[in-house]
Amino acid sequence: MNPPNEILVSFDLDYTLMKNPFRQYVFPELNDLLQPSGEKTVRQWLNEEHTQRLGQGQFASAYDWDNMLQTVGQQQKWACQVSIKELVQKHAVPGKVWLFSDVLPTLQQLKQRDIPMVVATNGFACYQRPVTDCLGITPYFQAFYTPEEIQLAKPQPEFFQFGCRRKLIHVGDRLDQDILGANLAGAVSVWINREFPIAWRDIPAEERKNHPEVKSLLQRRLQREGSSFHTLDHVTPDYILASLDELLPVLEKEMRKKFC
């Protein structure tokens, strides 16, 4: 008999489950269409606007790429009117977006055990759903929680309020968004790091955070994410996975614990 479903599993999308078309296709096409003057690319201009909005506490609007494009375009006097939403729809096709190989078997396993799953992403639905639809994973999720819907974004702990009635287990690849937010919200944080050293993979997932070299691993990742100012205590995950193949035992372990 399957254990009682007192848990809710939320997944980040980009680089946790899938690869979107932004870097390889959307941003390069924007650059070709808009042809910005100077040395900065469109992506660099948008990233600056994104960072500025985050710094101003505009967490939800910092992920509204079309609004940011409109703002920057007016400032830079770009003549061409372009929709990032339409470009995502154009490029959300097989061969330009893809799933990691461990994703579909894991989603199927969880569905077979009636474990409820939702998406918790900082990407607006109009940029994410075309990709999940193309990849065939949309039906696995009961809901999509996105910044434009709840006017919050990770790592704000309030973003995770959708899991308040169950034990929430959040799976993501970013320390500064997924793990920090889940920890602040009191959820179980699961860091998927497919670059996790092979030599450490015999260590149980819940014990990997105690490895003496994990602190330096976390520090290097925070630097890559541009968020090295966070304290390690806040971004240390409850579990570290090298593959989503390791997720089901984690969920079974959490379901055996007394639900608080």
From TrEMBL:
Keyword terms: Hydrolase, Magnesium, Metal-binding
Example GO molecular function: metal ion binding
InterPro entries the UniProt entry points to: HAD-like_hydrolase, HAD-like_sf, HAD_sf
Source domain of life: Bacteria
Keyword Magnesium: yes
Keyword Metal-binding: yes
Entry protein name: HAD family hydrolase
Species annotation: Paenactinomyces guangxiensis
